[in-house]
């Protein structure tokens, strides 16, 4: 029951108000993952940024099952297999950014897309985490069963040969 596994990998492109960047991000994520992205929209009004509820500001793709395996290895390789401790939260989830999509191995430059970045979020879980998602008798995961930051680091080192970059992101 203590075995850690990857629940899902989420790729996210934030575009702001620019429709052109949103369309490019949509093409990038669909080409990279092979899955149709979902548009994300604002929920709050922020007048200073010119945002209103319902305005599309980005797109995302969530990969579950074994679909994430080949893609995640390529995305981590784009970061030279280095992560900083600040990219892993206290619940064991990992989030990192890729500044340019051309850094991804086996990715060919596409003039329609150009050079764009994205955020990658990896959600870890253990057997038994279903109790927090189920519909009937939903409950919290016990303190001893939660994934700690140290366990997430060990998992990433073992599975993906991650090098921990102590000096932080550059």
Question: What distinguishing features does this structure have?
Answer:
single chain, 170 residues, alpha+beta, 50s Ribosomal Protein L5, Chain: A, five-stranded antiparallel beta sheet, two-stranded parallel sheet, 7 strands, 22% helix
Task: Walk me through this protein's architecture.
This protein has a domain at 5-11 and 63-164: 2-Layer Sandwich (50s Ribosomal Protein L5, Chain: A), CATH 3.30.1440.10. It is α+β, with helices and mostly antiparallel strands. The model has no long low-confidence stretch (mean pLDDT 89). The strands form 2 sheets. It has a 5-stranded antiparallel beta sheet with strand order 2-3-1-6-5, covered by helices on one side. A two-stranded parallel ribbon has the order 4-7. It is globular. The chain has helices at 19-33, 68-78, 149-160, and strands at residues 5-14, 38-41, 56-64, 82-83, 94-98, 118-125, 163-164. It has 3 helices and 7 strands.
């Amino acid at each position: 029951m203590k075995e850690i596994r990857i629940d899902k990998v989420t790729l996210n492109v934030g575009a702001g108000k620019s429709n052109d960047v949103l369309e490019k991000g949509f093409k990038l994520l669909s080409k990279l993952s092979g899955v149709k992205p979902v548009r994300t929209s604002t929920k709050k009004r922020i007048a200073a940024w010119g945002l209103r509820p319902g305005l599309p500001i980005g797109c995302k793709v969530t990969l579950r099952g074994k679909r994430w395996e080949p893609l995640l290895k390529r995305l981590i390789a784009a970061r030279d297999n280095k992560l900083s401790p600040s990219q892993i939260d206290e619940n064991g989830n990992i989030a990192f950014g890729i500044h340019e999509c051309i850094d991804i191995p086996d990715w060919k430059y596409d003039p329609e897309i150009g050079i764009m970045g994205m955020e990658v979020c990896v959600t870890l879980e253990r057997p038994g985490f279903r109790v927090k998602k189920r519909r009937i008798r939903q409950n919290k995961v016990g303190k001893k069963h939660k994934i700690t930051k140290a366990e997430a680091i060990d998992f990433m080192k073992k599975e993906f040969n991650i090098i921990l970059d102590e000096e932080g992101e550059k």
